[in-house]
Amino acid sequence: MKFLILLxxxxxxxxxxxxAILSGFVRDKANKESLPYATVSVKELKIGTATNIxxxxxxxxxxxxxxxxxxxxxxYQAFTFKITTTEKxxxxxxxxxxxxVVQVSEVIIEAEKDEGKRSTQTGRISMQAKDIAQLPTIGExxxxxxxxxxxxxxxxxxxxxxxxxxxxxxxxxxILLDGTVVYNPxxxxxxxSTFNNDAIKDIVLMKGGFPAEYGGRLSSVLNVTNIDGDRVxxxxxxxxxxxxxxxxxxxxxxNGSWFLSGRRTYFDQLVSFAxxxxxxxxxxxxxxxxxxxxxxxxxxxxxxxxxxxYFGDDDLTYKIGNNEIELNMLWxxxxxxxxxxxxxxxxxxxxxxxxxSRYKATIGGDFxxxxxxxxNSVQDYSLRSDVDFFVSNNHLMKLxxxxxxxxxxxxxxxxxxPYLFNERPAQISFYGQDEWTINERWKIQFGLxxxxxxxxxxxxxxxxxxxxxxxxxxxxxKFAAGMYYQFLNAVPAGSDNGFSPxxxxxxxxxxxxxxxxxxxxxxxxxxxxxxxxxxxxxYFKFYKDVxxxxxxxxxxxxxxxxFNVGSGRAYGFEFFLQKQVGQLTGMVGYxxxxxxxxxxxxNDAKEFMPKFDRRNDLTLAGNYQxxxxxxxxxxxxxxxxxxxxxxxxxWIDKSSGTPITRIEPGPLYSKRLLPYHRWDLSLHKKITMFxxxxxxxxxxxxxxxxxxxxxxxxxxxxxxVEVTDVKLLPIIPSFGVExxx
Length: 741
Prior knowledge:
This protein is mainly β. It has 5 helices and 48 strands. It has a 22-stranded antiparallel beta barrel. Strands 9-16-17-12-13 form a 5-stranded mixed beta sheet. Strands 1, 4, 7 and 8 form a 4-stranded mixed beta sheet that branches. Strand 38 and strand 39 form a beta hairpin. Mean pLDDT is 85; it is low at 1-7, 9-17 and 101-112.
């Protein structure tokens, strides 16, 4: 790797001797926060680039002369400046962009057009915290709630953060927090995610066709980047709602910044205060807390060190009667990363990251004197190096290596000899990709990712290809194809209803092949209608060696015995319309999709549609800004009901001497629940109190109080079998207040 960096460094020095190079960082003028994905272009030459995740840009090979440089980013005022390359060959220009205080539609539309014309990525959704905060929700804004409204993204249920994306299961999503993998991003059994909206700077979801720098999962990549912190002034904000309290602070320190944000719910305090935590009808004591921290320091002009950390826990204690039943549950995540950013030359930008991620869930208790405990944990120690090499105006190369050492453990005991599963696999990945701008119309990106895991001894090769063709200044055609592999899979420790925070991550063994998918995506985007962006995408996915957990097997050290191995396919069509400018803004998203699975040992080897196959999915979201103070938001969702497996009959098994009722299932996932639909509303008002700026909000979840069906419950003690609809949440109003200080 050192040799590769030296080679690229030498090459960049040679190229820089011939023509001028313009480089630097793009930041927010108000707080000096770096701005990723801003467009920087030389107007006369019609060349340019986009800033990377750190806000860095480089435009090499600029000829002699005087030129105009234009910098634009959606939501910011466009910035223009002049450069002269006659006397100076190395031009370093850091750029500060101002917020778009007055929404000038021409500037915003131009920024959006530039972004769409430069990106080759299909199925890419980019959001900021302010976008998420505008959507109605329960209690507080949440990343996963916002993403579930996007086409191609389906929620496991309305009380789960689980995402089924384009025919994939929930464990097929790579979830990153500042580049560190998060293994179970949920609070309150999935009702909230681990991502605090106050701490978020940028969210990018790639639903398919993601580039070679990402791997290890089959369906998608969700990359959440936290705020760096204000480099100019110290300030904060606090909010309180019916469910939780949040406090955030940030400010300058040394040659950098700090950021800290925390939150806590208080269900436990309310239950304890009311004296409802004891007795026959006791309620559980439950709360969760989490905190995000980030520290940045510039060490000279070309070096930056940053530390980012997260920790959070859910804690539940449940006691019934006089020590008759006692249940204790604790689960949570810890992540930490130290990153060194170094600019070797104007055209060579590098990141070196050492990270740690741990997810641990513990369940313990006592039922009438019989004790039990379950402990499930995954620890991930990773080293990662990424290089951005701005070879020329036509080529941007990315190279990298990612090594991970895992420690995965599951321990179970129930008044007897404990069962222990422990594996320590290691995995290493190499990737390389080149983004080639052929001309003003054509841009292609091709790459390769090579992965090796020491338990399976498999080496996989995952080619990636993305292409973009600009039809005209308004419209773009995109295509993507790629092969993806997965060595880690999650075993659901709970039911099949998306209600378990205790999913167990298990590595493949030497008898198993890694799961794989081959994706093809075709998309069309247009911004022809002024402030409206419209996109269409269709996709085809083919799965091989996908796994389905055998629930009848509970204790074995042979991982291959835990799963059925099969194949699958998924295909669909997505439509997305978005209006981001004006008094009325919003979006319309629609998905028409099919998902199929085939397992030789199940359903007579016939193809079936799993529970996350939903034919139609529609979302209508809107925001109306009455004036500077008042804003109304509305979201309506409709989708085809989930599939489930009906019971064909029951019989009595007397082979063991004791009669046992056995259930005979019908065709696998052959029935569907009723269609799902829900309407949510929220009202926001800006206020000033005690010389502090703030706002209050009133939200209503499930306005017309329709109880959607969660799952079917079959009571086999009755004859005939009694079938009950277990329903989801009723109408829930909530209220909250937020202040900045």
